[in-house]
Fold this sequence. Notes:
Helices cover 34% and strands 25% of the residues.
Amino acid sequence: MSFNVSTSFRLDQSRVARLLRLPGGAVDRSLRRRVERVQAAAQRLAPGSMGNGIRTSLRYTHDGPIGTITSTHPATIYVVNGTRPHRIQPKRRGGVLRFEIGGRVVYARYVNHPGTRPNGFLIEALRAAT
């Protein structure tokens, strides 16, 4: 004895695509969670006060939601890419630099900075949170 069962199934591609792109949908919720995890990791891994300037945003395009993590700290580019040795001078002509070394205030017309190694804390945060 054999049975022949036949069912018909039609997938509406446009509805599926719309569901995937909708704010509040499954993809949106998953992306939000991931973006928040990356933000928390970036804030934890950022040097000094740089973590206070880590911001996130979500935007919606015809392809779906896009999550963005941004650092607003002005020195981020130098931390992430590193710097070569360079001279630091006062902004104003004839001015002096003031800083502390070992609790003692020091004044100088310029300093020769040794440069810094790159710190890829944003990439590390992305890897750590996924």
